[in-house]
Structures are given as structure tokens and as C-alpha cells.
Automatic annotation (TrEMBL):
SIS domain location: 286-426, 459-600
Top EC group: transferase
Domain of life, source organism: Bacteria
Protein name per Swiss-Prot or TrEMBL: Glutamine--fructose-6-phosphate aminotransferase [isomerizing]
HAMAP family to which the protein is assigned, alphabetical: GlmS (MF_00164)
Keywords: Aminotransferase, Cytoplasm, Glutamine amidotransferase, Repeat, Transferase
EC number: 2.6.1.16
Role: Catalyzes the first step in hexosamine metabolism, converting fructose-6P into glucosamine-6P using glutamine as a nitrogen source.
Annotated active site: C2, K605
Keyword Repeat on entry: yes
Length: 610
């Protein structure tokens, strides 16, 4: 779930390890720890509840020498957040860090207690340390002990083991939680995400499911699930060096909101001509597959689910293909019917979302025609396990609350919808040219939407002392309202709900009073008149309205209604465009409330547990 960093080097690695953890802070965590061994087998373990900075301070107060070490940020799943539960966990000479969950930890704990081990934490992780310690008694090497250990583990994990008596190596296993190996000169590294290591190396290989690897200063040996030595391709990363820096921005979220014009340019690059979508850019044989698609099933969680909900309107209206969207944690445990010629699409920023990954694996068994993912992280599990991966290329997204991943997902989805409609002869050349023109215009339009920054900052004052907010939209702007409400909840902790505006009179209208701001997304489309009636329903009951409206929509502000006038943009890309002021609104409300914008309480970035 959270962060792992490891190093085997000649130089002292404490700084490298904690810097790596710092770069992974964006994932959300509750505690951090490090264990380092020097060449005389002297081990130092430091753990702190709270921020990585506490650990940095601790490593500065106490000189930590040693070239081999493991470090971890924990997002508690078993046992409260506390120093005692923070990783690394130890069993005699063995130290362990672990991401994920060991599902059979209770029975293993009992077995290990029967063998005489005593437990110092409430975590599931500690069983790994004791199991390795036990296996080491018979095994000829640490890697063999880990191989024997992982055979006994059920669940999803990435885990790294260090033996104090032999500081020349680390061993690591991957099963359901990503691990990347970083290659240096006379030193090697590993991490749960390459971002952690970009300041020490650019050369990486990615462990595959079931892999176990041994890392020394000069050598990396990888074994597959059956224990056979395997080669995993080493690739040069071109990820941005400074992805982990805020630059001139106060928060990563703010930086990422402002990066959207560039992110959107990167998403469409090489995929569009002046007036057409290049179907092959979706994948080898994409045209052949898309031609046969009769149904689309989207599976996603959180913000990605909201992107899927917008796309549902597009798939049906622009490509003439029926589309269902479902939350991954529901889909995976439901007895569903697979439609003929159905294309499964998973959406995920990280590509490691546990529920979405499980849904993909299940769908593959259930006979979907093809499985595609729209994802932001190359080499992630969803990317590797899908038939097609359409990368969003938004760049590293660090703020827990997703922004640029959402808008780039939407533009990727719109390209896919267009290609699908074209291959099925539903979208003609004129329509295609109209969509492509709208996509090309979007980065500039978003730049202009970002210039509403100050106006929205002022508006945010009205929300900061409220306990609730209602967001309304119709058609594909209903999921934009859903995303706006999710954003506000996530970072400002204000309770927010989104309704399809036509649904108001069926219940939520009862909530309307002067303490309930109502935000309306009001582009000038064929539903505008209906929306205006819904707005009147709120006004008549004394509600306070904030309407983000197209300049030609004909609204007039008064004491019960503030109008934020937006320039006219294409109907097709308007959902992406209207997302921007919603993001800015949440951001500024959170700023006024003084919440932890980039790492909201209780949340993690990449949700690799169920
Ligand atoms: N399940 C482990 C624990 O609660 C690891 C959690 C994580 O992925 O950080 O300690």
C-alpha cells in the first residue's frame, strides 16, 4: 500500500532511504521506519509515528552508518498506527518491511507462537519476519528462506528482508504489490515505485507476480514463481527528475491542477491528426477489436469511477455502444452476466488499485472479449495484465486527491470513444473532425479556466464555514458534479453530495436552507432549460446558489445566486473544462480550512488493499 525503499551500497544509505520515503509521501501513510546494517553487522533501527520528517530528524540526531538498509512508510491495515507497529519488524537477525496484507496471518501467528516466537506488534507483517527466521535455520541462503516463506503466505504483498549477519544482500518478493529494482554503479536499490529512486538511478527493472530477487552491490538475481532464474528487462526511465518537487506551488495538488494543459497535450500527442483519431495508437490490432465491440463495461474506483460515468454518456451518444460502469469493489464480488463482444475497460491512476486489478483478473476468466486499461503508471500491474494499455501520460500525480489524472482519463476516453465510433461506422468524418478539434483546443481553454483562480479563491470563503455542500448537474455534467463533491469531501472534509439535478425533488430538496450552498454546473446545452427549472426549485426554498454558467446561458446574479461566467466551449469537451473550476474551488476551501491538502486524513494515494 505504502512505501518501500531499499539499498545495498558501499556508502552510507540512510539519507538515500529517507529521501526515497519522502518522495513516496504522496501515497499517504501513518508512520515511517528504517533499519540499516554496517559492514560489522551493527544494526540500527529507527521508527517514528507521524511524518517522514520525524524520521529524518531522528537519523540526523543519531549518526546512522551502514551501506545496507530497508525503509518503509506504513498505511496501517492490521494494528493501530503506532511506533511499535511501524516497520521494519524484526525476528532475531532478520528485519522485514512489507506493503499489503497477509490474509492468513492469524493462523501463521498461532503456528509461530507454538514454535516459541513472541510477537512485539499487532501487524500481519511480523509473521513474515518470524517465518524467515525459522526457515533460515534450514535454508542455505536468505533467498531460499524467503522463497520458502512466501509459499506459506496468502494475500497481497511486496516484502523486503535483510539479515543483520550478512549485510551484503537484500532479498525481496512481489505478489500483488509492485517492486522495482534500481541499478546503480557498484550499488543497487529497490523500491515500491521508481519515483523513490530517481535521484540515485534511472535504470530500472520491474518484478513480476511471484518473483523473488536477491540484490547485492554488484548483482541482481531474479527468480520466477517456480524458482527458476529469469531476466527482467532493464529499462531507462525518462520520468521527470523533479516530479517529486512542488516547485513554485504551495501544494502538489495545486501544481497538478496547473499542470493540466501540459498533461492534456501529452495525452493526445501522437494519437490525433489535425482532424482524426489514430486508432492504432490505442494498440496493436485495436481497429479489428473495436470493430466488433457491442458493449463496454467500465470498472473503476473513486475519481476514476467518475471519469467512467462521464464516458458512459459518450459511449452511448457518440459511439452508439451500450456501456455500464461499476465500482470495482462491487463488480468483483457480484455474479455478473458477461455480454457478448464486451470490452472491459479498467480506469486507474496508479494501475495498482487492488479492487480494480481483481476485477480485471476476474473479467478475464469470465470471457470478456478484450481487456483494456486507461492508466497513468507505466509498468503497473493493470498495464501489464491488460490486453491494451492506453497511457494517460499525466506525469506523476502526488496529491492524494486526483486532478490531472481525471482530466487526462477523460481525454483518453474521448479518443477511445471516437475511435470506437469510427470503427463501427457510427462517427462520420465530420463528427470526428469536430471532436478532434475540441480536443486540440482544450489545453488553451483550460489555461483560460485556470485564470479564474483568484475569483474562485474569493468565492471559497463562502464555503469554508459550512458543513455541507450540494453539487448539481445534468447529463454528463452529473458525474462532473460527483467528482466535484468527491474533491471537496476529500480535501476539505466538508460533507458534500452530488445529485442529477432532476432528482432534487425526489428527496434532497428537503435539505435546502441558507446553510447549504448549492453549486450548479451549467453549460449551455440542450438540458439548460431543464436545469434552470431545477435552479428555481432551490431558489424558491431559500437556497444559496453558485452557478458556473456558460456566458450565453442567460443567468442573472442576485442575492441568492452568484454566477461565475465561463466562456463558451465545445459541448463535447465541456465536462473536462468545467472540472477545472470545481478543482480550484475545493483546493481553496481546503486552504482556508487549513487541512492537509496533499495528504488528507485517513486516505492513501494508491489503494493497493481491498
Ligand atoms: N499490513 C501491514 C501493516 O498493517 C502493511 C501495511 C502497508 O502496506 O503499509 O503493517
Amino acid at each position: 500500500m505504502c512505501g518501500i525503499v531499499g539499498a545495498v551500497a558501499q556508502r552510507d544509505v540512510a539519507e538515500i532511504l529517507v529521501e526515497g520515503l519522502r518522495r513516496l509521501e504522496y501515497r499517504g501513510y501513518d508512520s515511517a521506519g528504517v533499519a540499516i546494517v554496517d559492514s560489522n553487522s551493527e544494526l540500527t533501527r529507527l521508527r517514528r509515528l507521524g511524518k517522514v520528517q520525524e524520521l529524518v530528524d531522528a537519523t540526523e540526531q543519531q549518526e546512522v552508518a551502514g551501506g545496507t538498509g530497508i525503509a518503509h512508510t506504513r498505511w496501517a491495515t492490521h494494528g493501530e498506527p503506532s511506533e511499535a507497529n511501524a516497520h521494519p519488524h524484526m525476528s532475531s537477525d532478520i528485519s522485514v518491511v512489507h506493503n499489503g496484507i497477509i490474509e492468513n496471518h492469524e493462523e501463521l501467528r498461532q503456528l509461530l507462537k507454538d514454535r516459541g516466537y513472541s510477537f512485539e506488534s499487532q501487524t500481519d507483517t511480523e509473521v513474515i519476519a518470524h517465518l524467515v527466521e525459522w526457515e533460515m535455520r534450514e535454508a542455505t541462503s536468505l533467498v531460499e528462506a524467503l522463497q520458502k516463506t512466501v509459499k506459506q503466505l496468502e494475500g497481497a504483498y511486496g516484502t523486503v528482508v535483510m539479515d543483520r549477519k550478512d549485510p551484503s544482500r537484500l532479498v525481496v518478493a512481489r505478489s500483488g504489490s509492485p517492486i522495482v529494482i534500481g541499478y546503480g554503479v557498484g550499488e543497487n536499490f529497490l523500491a515500491s515505485d521508481q519515483l523513490a529512486l530517481l535521484n540515485v538511478t534511472r535504470r530500472f527493472s520491474y518484478l513480476e507476480e511471484g518473483d523473488v530477487a536477491e540484490i547485492t552491490r554488484r548483482k541482481v538475481t531474479i527468480f520466477d514463481l517456480s524458482g527458476n532464474p529469469v531476466e527482467r528487462e532493464v529499462v531507462e526511465s525518462n520520468a521527470e527528475h523533479d516530479a517529486g518537487d512542488k516547485g513554485k506551488y504551495r501544494h502538489f495538488m495545486q501544481k497538478e491542477i496547473f499542470e493540466q494543459p501540459t498533461a492534456l497535450i501529452n495525452t493526445v500527442e501522437g494519437r490525433l491528426t489535425k482532424d482524426a483519431v489514430i486508432t492504432e495508437s490505442i494498440g496493436v490490432n485495436a481497429a479489428e477489436i473495436l470493430e466488433k465491440v457491442e458493449h463496454v463495461q467500465i470498472v473503476a474506483c473513486g475519481t476514476s469511477y467518475n471519469a467512467g460515468m462521464v464516458a458512459r454518456y459518450w459511449f452511448e451518444s457518440l459511439a452508439g455502444v451500450s456501456c455500464d460502469v461499476e465500482i470495482a469493489s462491487e463488480f468483483r464480488y457480484r455474479k455478473f452476466v458477461t455480454r457478448p463482444n464486451s470490452l472491459l475497460i479498467t480506469l486507474s491512476q496508479s494501475g495498482e488499485t487492488a479492487d480494480t486489478l481483481a476485477a480485471l483478473r476476474l473479467a478475464k476468466e469470465k470471457g470478456y472479449m478484450s481487456a483494456m486499461t486507461i492508466c497513468n503508471v507505466a509498468g503497473s500491474s493493470l498495464v501489464r495484465e491488460s490486453d491494451f494499455a492506453f497511457m494517460t501520460r499525466a506525469g506523476a500525480e502526488i496529491g492524494v486527491a486526483s486532478t490531472k489524472a481525471f482530466t487526462t482519463q477523460l481525454s483518453a476516453l474521448l479518443m477511445l470513444v471516437t475511435a470506437l465510433g469510427k470503427e463501427r461506422q457510427y462517427v462520420d468524418a465530420v463528427k470526428e473532425a469536430e471532436i478532434v478539434k475540441a480536443l486540440h483546443s482544450l489545453p488553451d481553454q483550460i489555461n483560460s479556466a485556470l485564470s479564474y483562480d483568484k475569483q474562485i479563491e474569493a468565492l471559497a470563503e463562502d464555503f469554508a464555514d459550512k458543513h455541507h455542500t450540494l453539487f448539481l448537474g445534468r447529463g454528463e455534467f452529473y458525474p462532473i458534479a460527483m467528482e466535484a463533491s468527491l474533491k471537496l469531501k476529500e480535501i476539505s472534509y466538508i460533507h458534500a453530495e452530488a445529485y442529477a439535478a432532476g432528482e432534487l425533488k425526489h428527496g434532497p430538496l428537503a435539505l435546502i436552507d441558507a446553510d447549504m450552498p448549492v453549486v450548479v454546473v451549467a453549460p449551455n446545452n440542450e438540458l439548460l432549460e431543464k436545469l434552470k427549472s431545477n435552479i428555481e426549485e432551490v431558489r424558491a426554498r431559500g437556497g444559496l446558489l453558485y452557478v458556473f454558467a456558460d456566458e450565453s446561458a442567460g443567468f442573472e446574479a442576485d442575492e441568492s445566486m452568484k454566477i461565475i461566467t465561463m466562456p463558451n466551449v465545445s459541448d463535447i469537451t465541456a465536462p473536462i473544462y468545467y472540472t477545472i473550476p470545481m478543482q480550484l474551488l475545493s483546493y481553496y476551501v481546503a486552504l482556508i480550512k487549513g487541512t492537509d491538502v496533499d495528504q488528507p486524513r485517513n486516505l492513501a494515494k494508491s489503494v493497493t488493499v481491498e
